Amino acid sequence: MGKWFRRQKGGQSNKDKNEPTFSELLEKCKESKDFISFRQGKSFSFYISYYKTLVNPDFIHRDLLSPITKHPIQSLDELKNLIPVENVTITDDVKDIQDKLLSGFILVHENETSARCALIPAIAVEKRQVTIPETEFSVVGPKESFVEAIDVNINMVRKRLPLPELYAKEILVGKLSKTRVVVMYIQGIANEDNISTVLQRIKDIEFDQIIDSSFITQLMSDNHNSPFPQLIDTERPDRTASVLSEGKIAIFVDGSPQVLTGPTTLPEFFSAFEDYFTTWHIASFFRLLRLFSVMFSVLSSPIYVAVLTYHYQMIPKDLLSPLIASRSGIPFPPIMEAIILELTIELLREAGARLPTKVGQTIGIVGGIVIGTAAVEAGLTSNVLLIIVALAALASFTTPVYQMSNTIRIIRFPFLLAAQFWGIVGVSMCFGFFLSHLLKLTSLGRPYVGPVYPLRLKDLKDSLYRLPFEKLSRRPMQLLPEDPIRFNKTRAEKKQDIDE
């Protein structure tokens, strides 16, 4: 299952032993301007308390005040039977009352000293409309993306997988935020060890606030020091439903429009879900093109620096003259020239990402043209390296998963430094270091570079390339699914016309 150092829970040690009483809790809540508490009823007097910013105001007048006004009640038990709402509970647990009150429940209690009260769910759900994906946009295929409401996200997945075996386990994470985290998987397909690993790691998270799914992936990763993402985050419900059917596990975080899926492998980061909407020839070509683009993006500038610094004998004679002409008058060595251009590209990327969309696009296009032209004319860099760096930056954008794209941008700099110190040998050493790191890396305890290592030939049919759907009759053995058969291969390959 890989190396996993379990975090020791600090709940009891950090827990405040002097929990407030019910009356102290109400006094503390009344300090907030949005807390409402008023008396209601004649024959049986009781108090209604809630945070008006957390509850649905229509529910209070329609489903709470209207019934109890028409039918006077004598006890909280009668109230529970009268209100047309599920999950109404009666309790005297102050801790539970506090948690529910701050989650959007209405508190109905007899007086301000007795802790026995009824908790009525009336949560106000504020959410934006479902829109098209932004980071995983596709020309063909569904145009839905997740939103910040966890219940809406689960609904979009359940529409695509209407199965009773699709389980959803909810865990509250975060000492202060109490964020809802839902682990979803298909029972009977997902491996039990993978399910247990995910549930245990989420339960062991000790952190005060969980704002986004990126917090979860950082806190439960196998190797926290690795620059490579070990879980895929997606904003597409169709992709989530697809990987669930393969035997993977999805992690939903309330307030996040991204869903984490795992265990994952390195080739999956270069597979766009749009590949399944085209023929297998085109999908395979684009997957191989992305892998080549990544290698070019990482190695092109370091090889340029290494060749011009140590191995200029490798340059063909026909190419030597243009290189000499382009570098004549350049005051900087190749390494400084490359670092300046790489940092300029990163500055343009960051500026374009942080500015509004229209302004960011203008900055990226105009800034790149103006700065590149001015740098060449001023003699600060050669036009050959400018072309190489521009192509490398363009190649890095072909990565479908944004987190892996960021990793590729970062690891170019160690390769550049290795090329400056040791030439091609340094590039090879750096490549070997990252390769050994990837071979040791795991995702939820499963090998990260599978199915290449350990080699699983049957899983290669949907990793580096994609074969026709009729050939994908088995789920990836990398996941060790409980049910490895997806469909009957014989019947899928047997195609008969109606007259046969």
UniProtKB/TrEMBL annotation:
Q: Which UniProt keywords apply?
A: Membrane, Transmembrane, Transmembrane helix
* Pfam families in alphabetical order: GerA
By sequence similarity, the record places it as follows:
Belongs to the GerABKA family.
Q: Which residues form the signal peptide?
A: none
- What's the protein here called? Spore germination protein
The portions of this protein that span the membrane are 288-310, 360-378, 384-403, 415-439
The source's domain of life comes to: Bacteria
Matching PANTHER family:
LEUCINE ZIPPER PROTEIN 4 (PTHR22550:SF5), SPORE GERMINATION PROTEIN (PTHR22550)
